[in-house]
Write a structure and sequence with these properties.
This is tRNA threonylcarbamoyladenosine biosynthesis protein TsaE. About 30% of the residues lie in helices and about 25% in strands. It is of the alpha/beta class and about 170 residues long. It has a single domain, classed as P-loop containing nucleotide triphosphate hydrolases (Rossmann fold, 3-Layer(aba) Sandwich), CATH 3.40.50. The protein has a 7-stranded mixed beta sheet, with helices on both faces. The longest helix is centred in the first third of the chain and has 15 residues. About 45% of the residues are buried.
Length: about 170
């Protein structure tokens, strides 16, 4: 399956990354646009900041203590829908517990966010997903979002409409 066209977003500062997370929360909370979010970028690129904006914007987000789950592998936030925040930095070869968490998340209608998504085995890639790649930029950050599956494409279209001021070029 070919991905839909990508959308590149310009994120001049942390506030813009948080705003992107809030926009994604509103979009991905809709079951018709619920797609997994796979994030790829260097350490300190803004992946966890984006997840913080996303989780805090959902109902129950004031109870979520968002932090990189590098040592836990998975954090589950008490939001509606629940957010399963997975970090594969320490397990680039995969881990059986990750598959169990992803299955539980899917069964419960949770929103799945995977940091270091490039380490997710190909056979575990969700059919409906947005892939966010942090790219080098002269100032701030760029994030290229690519959609897979019908719900991923619907989420990307909604993102373009919701955040036109962040769309690069």
């Amino acid at each position: 399956m070919d991905p839909s066209p990508s959308l590149t977003l310009r994120l001049p500062g942390e506030a813009d990354t948080l705003a992107l997370g809030r926009a994604l929360a509103a979009i991905l909370a809709d079951p018709g646009k619920r797609a997994a979010l796979l994030l790829r970028g260097d350490l300190g690129s803004g992946k966890t900041t984006l997840v913080r904006g996303l989780a805090e914007a959902l109902p129950g987000g004031d109870e979520a203590e968002v932090a990189s789950p590098s040592f836990n592998i998975v954090n589950v936030y008490p939001t509606r829908p629940e957010v399963f925040h997975v970090d594969l930095y320490r397990i680039p070869g995969g881990d059986p517990c990750v598959e169990e968490h992803l299955e539980a998340a899917a069964a419960g209608g949770a929103l799945v966010v995977v940091e270091w998504g490039q380490y997710l085995p190909r056979d575990m890639l969700p059919a409906h997903r947005l892939e966010g790649d942090w790219l080098p930029a002269a100032t701030g950050r760029l994030c290229r979002m690519t959609a897979w599956g019908a719900r991923g494409q619907a989420a990307l279209a909604a993102l373009a409409q919701t955040c036109p001021d962040l769309v690069a070029g």
